[in-house]
Amino acid sequence: MSVRVFDDDDLADDDSLTLSVQDNDNPAVASAVVEGTTLTLSPLPDQHGAVNVTIRATDQAGEFVESTFQLTVNSINDAPILIQPISDVTVNECAPPTVLDVSASFDDPDIATDYDSLTIS
Question: In whole angstroms, what is the distance from residue 90 CA to residue 110 CA?
C-alpha cells in the first residue's frame, strides 16, 4: 500500500525530502525503519500492544514536518511449545506406579504476555 503523506511546494524546484523515524515509543513491541520512501513496521515475536511512531520529512533547507500515528499489534493465540521431550520409561511388570513430573516439558508464550494458562492432560 502506498500513501503520500508529505509534500513540499519546493519539490518542483529540485528540492527533496528525507524521511526518518523520529520516535518509536514502544520498541519492545515493534520496530519502525525508513529506507528511502519506504516505512517498514515489524512486530516482534510474541509481543503485542500499541506503538506511537513519529515520522519526519526534512527538506534540503532543514525545514521539517512530522506525522505521528499509532500502530496496534493484536495478540494472537500461540500454540504451546515442547521445551524438553519426555524420556522413554521402562518398568518391570508388577512394579509400583511410576510418577513423572512433566510440567517443565511444556510452555506457552502467551502465559507471559496474555496471562494465559497451560493445561497438561
Answer: 34
